Amino acid sequence: MKLNLDQEKPIFIQIAEGIEEGILTGAFPEESQIPSITEFSVNYKINPATALKGINLLVDEGIVFKKRGVGMFVAEGAVGKLQKKRQDQFYDNYVSRLVEEAKRLGITSDEIIAMIERGFVQ
Amino acid sequence: MTGIEVRDVSKTFGDTKALSHVDLHFEENTIYGLLGRNGAGKSTLLNIIHNRLFPDSGKVLMEEEVLAENASLLPRCFLVNESNLYPEGMKVKDAFRWSRQFYPDFDEAYAKELCRLFELPVKKKIKSLSTGYQSIFKNITALSVNVPFVFLDEPVLGLDAYHRDLFYKLLIEKYAENPFTAVISTHLIEEAANIIEQVIVLREGQIIRNESMESLLESGYCISGPAAQVDAYIRTREVIGMDTLGGLKTAYVTGKPDQKHLDGLEVSRMDLQRLFIHLTDHAGRR
Amino acid sequence: MKKILRFQLKDLLYSYLVYGLVMLLLAGIPVLICYANDNTDITINGNGFSGAVFCLVIGIAIYKEHLQMAVQNSISRKCFFRSILCVMVISGCVCSLIDSVSLLITQSMGMSSWGNSSFYTNSIWRVGYSEFFERAGGIASVIISYLLSVLVGMVLFAVGVLVAGGYCRVAKRYRTVYCVVLPIFFFGVLPVAGAYFHRQVSKAAVFFMDIMGFSSDNPYLGILTLSAVCLVLTGICYRLLRKTEIV
């Protein structure tokens, strides 16, 4: 999992998104153990409380669960949950921005669709 | 009240007021960032807390007891700063041995392990080390001492990027495994920004900010775009500072961005370094 | 307090050892002199003061460094002061012991004959309270002179601490002035003033002889006076230390 912590988003959200990314790409398979709070905080030089806050977001969503005294694991069905969540966010995160930029550059909707089709082919 | 409480502390050196009426509370198991420009009073504050300097007025309390000259409470604190108070000719390993005498929880084996990581030869005399390695020696002691309150005045002074990184990682590791209160004063804010939970900003001996890092960063935002548009936007808003580059202008504004008037302007999160520069700018508008 | 005391003593151990060794070597010097010069009778007066000077030097030398070490390790000034008091007593005892032993060795060697020469040593106290010691005899005089040496050692140690403590309290920019003025005052201004006010000086000398019990040949009075002086000096030391800031 690679993170470039920047100032655009709060760190704990970036941590949560980083782990999500790891789950989606298969770096953290379902039911496997993820690094501890200490490992996350040391690795990214962040306060453990921040790391905990980020991971708790995922715990609340049922993507990650904690086993007392053992560590934290990716939940069964986490990938499905994440895909669903990302699909829901897809419009806001990508489409609306794409359209906004297209308007600024004077690209028509037909042209965008053509480009998207080209992207799928390649 | 738990933790350490600084109550109405003032201190003057000659005719310079180093601290005036400082009130603070350091909670247990929290990492504090003590920020301020040179001469803002950071070192004086830490020296007063650790019974090295005496305040002209006010007091420092731990568990409702005055900390100054308190033989039973003082050993719960450890301060390292630019001055090296170890005796002439004392070797690194001897200093560790004595540290264990003075602080029963000092972890000598861990200290030696850290020396290996930092490539600090334990047989060298402390005062013969370079400035950077003297800092490293002091930081290693601070990390191994295992007391509830550790004060680090400019801990990364003279350290190269690799050693700074290593130091912060070790600090976090220690803190995550066995929490304690660390108060870090530093000029290199960016590197410590994600570690710090609470920010205290000193300016000319007074506290101008004392809040969580999160609320400090959320207390404002940056807005940039064409100068005329930015000027129009900030006319009715409180501005901490501004940077201009040609026709482009970036303003640091307090509060939350107003979605209705943001057309063509770019909003970004407050940048701590920038915020700090503008907060502590003597000549700047506040 | 135990911790800082242990540190102080450990730091001083080496100094004590070196001093002891040197003094034992010096004990043999009169013998060498006797061998070198035929047919001489030497009387050495005033032995047993070197330990006191050694205490003075220790007092000056260790104060700042040990105080800094104490402060770095969260030892309160009060604790440090108690430790310094212990070091003062211990240094007085150790140095006097070394002096006494060295003196005893010299004396016992003086009893045998060395070629055609002979020598005889007198401790400073035997000179000061000569009649008392003649009356008192062996053991009592050993104990009394030991006690006196210890006290003088302690007084000088306190003086040393006072000098160093004053130095620490003086603001940085006045420290050079302090270093220059102090010796000039004691060894320049005072003697000159003494020459000018010679009557007062002789009065003071008489007063000193009186309170030390030299005039009345009473070492107990000396012990009392030295104890009082020591108390006053340590009191001043504490006042100095209490407000000393370490940065």
Strand content of chain C: 5-15%
Largest sheet of chain B: 6 strands, mixed
Unreliable runs of chain B:
none
In total, how many beta strands of chain B?
14
CATH third-tier fold name of the largest domain in chain B: Rossmann fold
Radius of gyration of chain C: 20 Å
Q: What's the gyration radius of chain B in Å?
A: 21 Å
* Overall form of chain B: globular
Which structural class is indicated by helix and strand composition of chain B?
Answer: alpha/beta
Q: Specify the structural class of chain C.
A: mainly alpha
Summarize model confidence as the mean pLDDT of chain C.
86
Tell me which protein chains meet in the greatest interface and how many residues each side has: B-C, 24 and 23 residues
| Count of the separate structural domains of chain B | 2
The total domain count of chain C is 1
Second-tier CATH architecture of the largest domain in chain B: 3-Layer(aba) Sandwich
- Average pLDDT confidence of chain B is 91
State the main characteristics.
heterotrimer, A: about 120 residues, mainly alpha, Arc Repressor Mutant, subunit A, 2 domains, three-stranded antiparallel beta sheet, 5 helices, about 65% helix, C: about 250 residues, two-stranded parallel sheet, about 80% helix, about 5% strand
Q: What's the topology here?
A:
The complex is a heterotrimer of chains A (122), B (286) and C (247).
Chain A: H1 11-25, E1 33-34, H2 37-44, H3 48-60, E2 64-67, E3 71-74, H4 78-105, H5 109-121
Antiparallel strand pairs in A: 1-3, 2-3
Helix pairs in contact in A: 1-3, 2-3
Chain B: E1 4-13, E2 16-26, E3 31-36, H1 42-49, E4 57-62, E5 65-66, E6 77-80, H2 92-102, H3 108-118, H4 131-144, E7 149-153, H5 161-177, E8 181-185, H6 189-193, E9 198-203, E10 206-212, H7 213-218, E11 220-226, H8 227-234, E12 239-245, E13 248-254, E14 266-269, H9 272-279
Chain C: H1 2-27, H2 29-36, E1 41-47, H3 50-72, H4 77-111, E2 118-123, H5 124-128, H6 130-136, H7 138-169, H8 175-196, H9 198-211, H10 219-242
Parallel strand pairs in C: 1-2
Helix pairs in contact in C: 1-3, 1-4, 3-4, 3-7, 4-7, 4-10, 6-7, 7-10
